Amino acid sequence: MPEKVLYRQQSHGLFLGLLDYKSAWRLQTHLVSAKISGKLKHPVFLFMEHPPVFTLGRRGGRENLKVPEAFLGTKGIDVVHIERGGDITYHGPGQLIIYPIVDLRKARLGVKEFVFGLEEVMIRVAADSGVRAERNDINRGVWVGSKKLGSIGIAIRHGVSFHGLALNVNTDLEPFSWVNPCGLSGVQMISLEEATGGKGLSMEQALRSARIHIEAVFQTKIQETSFETLNQMIESAPELEEV
């Protein structure tokens, strides 16, 4: 990545464990609004897992759902339509989710450069597990051979990014067979666990690895914080006109 686009500043990191998708979505929009208004000064990286859920991006994707939604209902799995890029995908436990809330304009990051950086983070985390992951012209994200390991879908609001990446660490891959993942027919997903025959990183190790590589790729230092602390910073910041 070009030197000019790197932060060289502190970021906040929230490590949220297993968080339902709609709560994570509300948290992101809250932080995006604070970033747009100028109350939230530093980038924020949200680290989490989700209970089972299918999400549809701006292009929709219900035509890529290969089972009836009633079937998903029997499994307790919601289908949520959101504003990120991309098509349909699955999130579930064992999948590392990272949502960066970043003012791309202030960071002097183009969208393609930003996505390239997120891919690089996943490639480096995979390497820490002994897995060679690569980019593929078929679709953004990272791949192991012909199988997809990690996906990216972002949204931009007034120059601020949200949504982000999903890396399969040790997640159950069966639900991916119920869709054409990312709208790609005939594509299979893979996890670090499967790629290493069960010798991949634990989720805790993957989190540590991702934090290290985000700091290296984006030239930032992630300061772990809590939502309460972050919210106090936002509420105590002076009122600024929204841009």
The largest sheet is: 8 strands, mixed
The DSSP helix count reads 7
Based on CA inertia axes, which overall geometry fits? globular
Q: Give the neighbour order of strands across the main sheet.
A: 7-8-9-10-6-2-1-11
> What structural class results from the helix and strand content?
alpha/beta
Strand content: 25-35%
Order of helices and strands: EHEEHEEEHHEEEEHHEH
Unreliable parts: 1-6
Gyration radius, rounded: 17 Å
Helix percent band: 25-40%
Report mean pLDDT, rounded to a whole number.
Answer: 88
Total strands: the figure is: 11
End-to-end Cα distance, whole Å, is: 28 Å
What does this 3D model show about the protein?
There is one protein chain. This protein is α/β, with parallel strands linked by helices and 243 residues long. It has helices at residues 21-37, 69-74, 104-107, 111-128, 192-195, 203-217, 227-236; strands spanning 9-18, 44-49, 53-56, 78-81, 88-91, 95-103, 134-136, 139-144, 147-157, 160-168, 220-224. An eight-stranded mixed sheet has the order 7-8-9-10-6-2-1-11, sandwiched between helices. A three-stranded mixed sheet has the order 4-3-5. Mean pLDDT is 88; it is low at 1-6.
Write a brief caption for the model.
With 243 residues, this protein is of the alpha/beta class.
